[in-house]
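Page 42, continued from yesterday. The earlier attempt failed because a stray header line got pasted into the input along with the sequence. Redoing it now with the clean sequence only.
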Amino acid sequence: MTKISILEKKWAYEELREVRIKNAMASILIEASATGEVNLYGDLAFNPEVDDFNIEDYFAESYADGVFTLELMELPARQKDLKAIQLKLGIPAGIALDITTDNYPLSIVGLSGNLKTDSENGPVSISNCECDMHIESENGPVRVRNSSGNIFAKLENGPISAEDISGEGLHLESENGPIKMRLASFKTVEIQTENGPIYYETLPVDGANMKFETENGIVHLVLPINYSFSLKAETESGRVKSKLDAEVTHEDNTFRIEQIYCDTDEVAQIEIITENGLIKLSGDSHINLDFIKVKLNQVKEALDKANTSEEKEMVMDLVSKVLDYLKKAAGSINEEKVKEKVNEAIAKLKSTMDDFNIDDTTANIKVKVEDISSEIYDGVREGLKNAKAEFDGLKYEHLNAESLKDYINKVVNSPLIKPYLGSEKKKAEKEEIAERSRLKILDMLEKGKITSEEAERLLNAIGKE
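This time it went through. Structure tokens are written below.
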């Protein structure tokens, strides 16, 4: 006979500043509390005929000096039918959390207070958080996505993956586990590992300082287009494989690459150190709306200060960089009408700045730039929106699949794909098919249907890494 026990506990403290959890009971989901209280919910199925069992005996709680401590103790082994369904813990907004767990999965969503996690073997998932993070794990996998804040992570053998993360600083130490960072935006980056591979895809962060160090693992660094950087790579027995346009110089065990687009750029400093591992350098040709927005705002700020010929020259340098970036990135827009709209806005911006006169009222020029900036930004955004709508139509009409295996089979057997298999169609047509597949893969990754590693393998297979 199984009995269901419904857990519902709440704690409220006026001067609460930190919550400390020690979990040895069950998997746990931690979310932001809407009530301003610490609350715990869950269902527990157990056998009441085996000894006397009182779930309250397995909680220990205390409060002192603004710190609430809660221990979730290990449930008795003699309860063979005991099954703990995932517990849900609510933490008030802005309250720091320090949680230690052993082998149970831990999921953290939407927190805004500083976060510290320590796990032995259980997987840790962190998403939609805005806080500084301190993450430690022995062997369990760690995943972080759609979050902002400084990150310090220390791991032994478990893998760590992250997507869409940003902050001032990222410090990561690992022994053997693989490291995968996508859509990362940090001013300071320090990643060290002994034998694990490192994959780091950075967004355009002006003046960033990045250092990657490994003994035998591969280092794969992906840089944005039109990104100003100075890179030094040191390797004893390894080699450098670069897909970047910039020239690679080699002397003794040191490789150097420098790529500067504008004299006014804050040049990113990148250092890679490895003993035997391969160093791969790639470029990311996909357009980044945040980067466009930042650069156009810099143009407008520079216009406010443009009172001398030197300041005018600085504005022109910024515009030149934005135009160069947009011209290359516009190639990633498949919709001709949207591409045409973006190119028209680019031409207007170029014409406006060609006619720029220091004697003109900068306020008038700024209004024109703002209007043109909106056209460019909205045009690019519309292009991405249309691409997603087109993909959604394809997904529901032709490639509706619930699993990775089904998706692969349907892609291969799709009537839209078959005409291109084994043929000599134009490169543009192949790119269009690959782009649709890329969107599908990223959509499945976002929904958690596939892992980052599976997504990477698929993207590599279609040439969209």
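Notes: Helices lie at 289-305, 309-329, 336-354, 362-397, 404-413, 427-446, 452-461.
Reminder to self: strip header lines before submitting.
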